[in-house]
Amino acid sequence: MIFIWTSDLDTGIEIIDEQHKRIVDYINMLESARRKKDRQAVAHVLDELVDYTCSHFAFEESLQVEAGYIYATPHKAVHAIFIKRIASYQEKHNAGEDVAEKLLAMLGTWLVHHIKRDDMAYVAEIKNQIDVIVQDKEQAGWLSRSLGMFFK
Q1: How many helices (H) and strands (E) does the chain have?
Q2: 14-150, superfamily in CATH?
Q3: Which tens digits make up the pLDDT trace of 36-58?
């Protein structure tokens, strides 16, 4: 089933919403690969999803730290658990198991709950600080900021 972005998933932080929509694109690409029973495409989408999600998480975490979000560390832990879950699906897929259907169900449910519960919890603090954060980092793009979080 195709995942449709709905306005109740908007955080009101444009860059975060665009990144979340990109994750939805990956979910929909995975659905397409599942329908075609294309194992190679499933593997490719999984790899891309992991890479993109890691960079998104790093960006989101850097915003939280810069805004002084009190629950930045627990939020980061939630991200780490998700990455481990995806890695386990990758391992199962690489071992020959057909994981696409279960993975799709997990991704859709996780993304909606994560945005509505975990991400919405930090929105007010980020919005209060976003102008200052953006001005301070105007010359560095979100990817640079994300990479900076990896190498701190």
Answers
A1: 6, 0
A2: Hemerythrin-like (1.20.120.50)
A3: 999 999 999 999 999 999 999 99
